[in-house]
Amino acid sequence: MLDRADDSHSANPCVVKRLERGDEQRWDAFVGGASRATFFHRVAWRGILEQVLGHRCHYLYAERDGAITGVLPLTEMRSRLFGHALISTPFCVYGGVVADDPDSEAQLTEAAGALADELRVDYLELRDRELRHPAWPVKDLYVSFRKAICADHDTNLKAIPRKQRAMVRKGVGAGLQARHDGSIAEFYRVYAESVRNLGTPVLSRNYYASLQQAFGQDCEVTVVTHQGQPVAAVMSFYFRDEVHPYYGGSVARGRDLAANDFMYWAVMQRAVERGARLFDYGRSKRDSGSYHFKKHWGFEPQPLPYAYYLVRAGTVPNISPANSKYGLFIEAWKRLPLPVSRALGPWLARDLG
Asked: Where along the sequence do coiled-coil regions lie (predicted)?
């Protein structure tokens, strides 16, 4: 599938270039008009990954007759614990090549492979939403959950299966309140506790603040309160007519209040008001708790065929929490005092892209 008009009628070949300072506006203009592009192809991610997390980015684009015809954001991840990789794009659920025509896509893919060879990484990982590299090894671990929503709140509520709809109403009955102008401080207090309880290191507060600063109104924090105290929070991304509730969770006492269900329903209502027509619940590992939670909302899983070009690695990597060798670490992390998990988490999480 091509993104826009096929430019292959041009006699001139495309040329692959590295993104330089001053080309950011051209890059984002292309991303904004390319049907396969995602929020995670936006150029502001480069600054966050480099300046906040300390990783080296290699943003490539294809150009023909002075116009960008394809983009490929790549980030080099180097870790003593997790190896050396080139990924499009870490900390993001989607990535890979977005191009106007087959030649631009092929040239960018070839350039990525050549860069992986040059850097002597363990592997190159392209986080495509569709199978685009059938000859490459593919990781069959993650799925995404995407569903159209309509402009009518009642219709959207009725589309939620009965048992999950009852949970939304439980949150309403408990007196939960949602507002969509939450601060990073409120969000981080809730989110850091939520991921600690799951046994996952949290990134630094500065990382989330940088996202909000970089993406402005396209990055919104929803905070759910009970009797004036935050019990759930989520950071959502907006891109064209899509909403991505991306980083979210609740504190322990929020579970008895159905805070997560109420929160995502509040985000769906807010998204409709902002003109969104597609709700992207993000990725989950197959058969995980979040996987079943999203299915109970009436969303159907769609495979994410992340593709790998192996350089030094002999097999597709598995640094997911689903890997049994991380089980003891996860259980130990759940028991850490919250201040300790906040202090140590960013050091580990920055390499877990």
From this structure: none
**Phi, psi angle pair for 300, to nearest 5°:** -100, 135
Integer Cα distance of 204 and 127 in angstroms: 24
Report the pLDDT value the prediction gives residue 80, as an integer from 0 to 100: 83
Instruction: Burial-class residue 219 by CB neighbours within 10 Å (0-12, 13-18, 19+).
Output: buried
Mapped onto helix, strand or coil, the DSSP state of residue 123 is strand
The dihedrals phi and psi of 288, each to the nearest 5 degrees, come to -90, 175
Token reading at 288: 């995980």
Cα-atom radius of gyration of the chain, to the nearest Å? Answer: 21
pLDDT at 318: 79
pLDDT of residue 4: 42
Quick count: other Cβ atoms within 10 Å of Cβ 62? 27
What is the C-alpha separation between 315 and 313, in angstroms, rounded? Answer: 6
Residue 271: which residues within 8 A CB-CB, separation 6 or more?
Answer: 149, 236, 238, 243, 279
Supply the mean pLDDT for the chain: 92
160 burial via Cβ count (<10 Å: 0-12, 13-18, 19+): buried
Kindly give the pairing relationship between strand 83-88 and strand 123-126: parallel
Q: Which residues contact residue 189 at a Cβ distance below 8 angstroms, ignoring those fewer than 6 apart?
A: 230
Distance of alpha carbon 110 from alpha carbon 93, whole angstroms: 22
Q: In what helix (H) or strand (E) does residue 142 lie, and over which residues does it extend?
A: strand 142-148
How many helices (H) and strands (E) are present in the chain, helices listed first?
11, 15
Amino acid present at 213: Q
Average pLDDT, integer, range 171-196: 96
Q: Are 353 and 87 in contact (CB under 8 A)?
A: yes
Quick one: average pLDDT of 270-274? Answer: 97
Q: The whole model's pTM is what?
A: 0.92
Q: Which domains does the chain have, with CATH numbers?
A: 7-140+305-317 (3.40.630.30), 143-304+335-349 (3.40.630.30)
Please tell me the distance from the alpha carbon of residue 287 to that of residue 161, in angstroms, as a whole number: 19
Whether the pLDDT of residue 282 is over 60: the answer is: yes
